[in-house]
Amino acid sequence: MLAKEELIEVRGGGITATFLNSMSRLIETFFNLGQSVGSSLRRVMSKKVCKMS
Asked: CA-CA 20 to 30 A from 3: which of 15, 29, 35, 45?
């Protein structure tokens, strides 16, 4: 077990590939969500919505 003084000196790592990958996926998800909302708004405003039976 580490002593209290040793635990204070422990430093975290830098930016990892896993962190970068998760940030990339998060940005991609927000982009796709914005694209879907924008497309839906455009279709509703132009009244080109397919009718559901």
From this structure: 15
